[in-house]
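Hey all, quick one. A colleague (J.T.) asked me to put the fe (ii) ion job into the tracker so the inputs and the structure tokens live in one place instead of scattered across chat threads. No bug as far as I know, just bookkeeping. Sequence used:
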Amino acid sequence: MPPRREYPPRSVTAADLGGIDPNYRRVLTRLLAAHAMAEKLTALGYQRAIETVENAALRPVLEKTFHEEHKHARLIYSALEEIGVSEKQADRTMITVVRAPSFEAPMHFAQQARGELDLLMASIALDATGLVMIGVNYRDSSYAPHAAAAEIILEEEADHDVFAAEQLGRAVERFGPEPVNAALREWMPRAVNFFGPPGSGFTFDCIRYGLKSRDNQELADLFLAMIEKRCDQLGLELPELTKEYPHAAA
Ligand SMILES: [Fe+2]
Ligand SMILES: [Fe+2]
């Protein structure tokens, strides 16, 4: 059973934190630190793509996306500063988290992705997932500054996702379905794991405090349904995934 939501959307500001359950602040800080890190790694991935992707026609959109992801990270780090947590402090709390399966997609994009197919898959794994996470969960956050940042981020993520959807069609035209299917087999487990484990105590707290509205599993299912539709339209195969988190190609 999902817990009852205790704080309505946009009802808490930084100034209110002193007067409410101190655990709210702890949960909020951890959530914002993870969001900021995800945006920062995504920005790094786009920066890497600018340096490594050979197709010059993609450069303007990569530059634009890089700047927007950088801005998203700044927005969330500013929200953290406002509650007395510096970027360094926030990042320090993420040292083990970034090695967990839920961060494999952004870490791989920031550190290892190569070439156009990897870029496309990263865009599906980070922008399409981001659109779901931010649109469904954070836009109605009880923490007003996070809801406000989500509103700004969301508009740009919608653009990034349009790019991912278009590129998927173009990739099939250029490379044929086989390499795209292989890339999907490699990336879809990472993309789905990015939502995090289902039914965790942390998510329970997030839902109770109104910092998220849905469980990770529900978001992952929404994302999979969206990608499945795109794959069907293009004659691509969405890979089977193992049932348990962290998911792997079955
Ligand atoms: Fe972003
Ligand atoms: Fe994005």
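Adding what we noticed when we looked at it: The pocket of fe (ii) ion (ligand 1) is lined by residues 39, 42, 69, 72, 130, 153, 157 (CB under 6 Å). The chain has one domain: 21-234.
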